[in-house]
Each structure stands twice: as C-alpha cells, then as structure tokens.
Amino acid sequence: MTTHSDPAEALRTLGLRASTDAIRALLAHATKSSLSPAQLCLELTTLERRERDARNLAARTKAAVLGTPKSLDRFDWSHPRAIDRVLYEELHDSLGFIERGENVLLRGQAGAGKTTLAKHLGFAALAKGHSVRFTTLAGALADLLRQQTLPAVERRLRRYTAPDLLICDELGYVPCDSDAADLLFRIVTERHEQRSVVITTNLAYKQWGTVFGDAPCLVPLVDRFAQHCHVLDIDADSWRDKERLEKKSVLSPKKGADQRRLAARR
Known about the structure:
Blueprint: H1 7-13, H2 20-33, H3 37-64, H4 85-94, H5 96-99, E1 103-108, H6 114-127, E2 132-136, H7 137-145, H8 150-161, E3 165-171, H9 178-191, E4 196-201, H10 209-212, H11 218-227, E5 229-234, H12 239-265
Parallel strand pairs: 1-4, 1-5, 2-3, 3-4
Helix pairs in contact: 1-2, 2-3, 3-6, 4-6, 7-8, 7-9, 9-11
C-alpha cells in the first residue's frame, strides 16, 4: 500500500479532481480557522463539486462547438425593423422550451443575426447543465452521408439525436437530395416532443421544398418540427452590409483628406 505524507496528494489518489494547490490552500484555511472535521468535510465537498462542475461545463462546451459569437449584450436590438425581443428573452432566460421538448425557428435573411441568437440559446442551455450541439445543416447531413454502412450511420446519428438541444444553422443555403432529407427527418422524428431543435433559415415553411425538392418526407418533416415550435421572425438588413458601410463611411473622410494633401504637394 502506498502512503503519502502530503494530505493533499493522498486526497488526490482517492479521485478528487480539485488541484493539489487548491486542496492545500483549503487545508491551510481549515487549520488557521480551526474548522471542525465536519466543517472541513463540507468545505472539501464544495471545492470538489465546484471543480467537477467546471470540468463538466468545459467538456459540454467543447462538444457543443458553438465557437465565439459576438456577445449578446452587443446585439443591436434597434437594427432589425421587426423582431420579437420579448419572446427571445423569454426563451433565453427561462429555457422552458428545452424542458418541454419544444423547437425554435429563427427566420430572416442572411446576415440578420439568426446564428448569433441561436448560439446564445446554446450558451444559456450549457450554463443550466444541458448538453448542446451546434452544426450547420449541410455539415450534419454531409457527416451522416459520409458513413459507409448502416450501423455507422446509426452510431453517428446519436451525435445529433442525443443532446438536449440541437442547433441546425443555415437551412436553405445548400440544396439537399432525398437521402439527406430522410436523415433530417430521422433526427427531427427521434427528437420529437423529447428534445429541442433550433433551426435558422431564410425560408418560410412553404419554401422548404426548394431545398428538399420532392422528398416524400418533406410534409411530415415540417409537420413534426412545427407542431411545438416558437417562431422568431427577424426583419433586418444584413449586419455585415451595415458594418461594411459604416467602415467605409469612417475611411472615406480620411481618404479624402489624404487626397487633398497629395494634391496640395503637387
């Protein structure tokens, strides 16, 4: 049997995930404050729980692949001509739609902020302990179609059916064949009324046929997704176009001044 003279190291061998330095600091605090054994146990439990929660969040955040979108407090709610901010904030703050297995559709033209808002629903879900996965629709379907065998497809489907919240970005930007439509139908069906799906798109439901063509599953796909769905329409010009124009307006006076100085030298 291995023995340790360092209590912190001994506790680590029992499987504690808190760092040795953090445990040593706690033991020093316990000695200085004359904590009772019961108080020390509670403090140690709190430290370990905090460390496990942090590691769990880090692992779930990595699996979610949400990236680093612009922070929500920088979202300019005055930019869209129309957006139901109250609905979004209710979805974001309460996350009740996840508990009820309901879906969310963020709809608007390219650059309207749909992806940013969808990702922040994901971050809010992570903070509440939910598992999340973000993917473009084209990326998810290509991932599934690359699988060589039916068992491989079934295994990979769990990547998209298991998380508490699945975010599918950019429906409508890449056309899909019947096989791809069937896979999306599988995902939506397996999650139906149990786990939430967020979809961002520039298309109304009646236009989804332009993406999936004459796929036989299109009508039941839309029916299942829309049955318990919160629709957030965003009427806005592209953020990217707006930022481009603002940058151009800032640079134009400087460019004009440079040209005037050059003309004066001549």
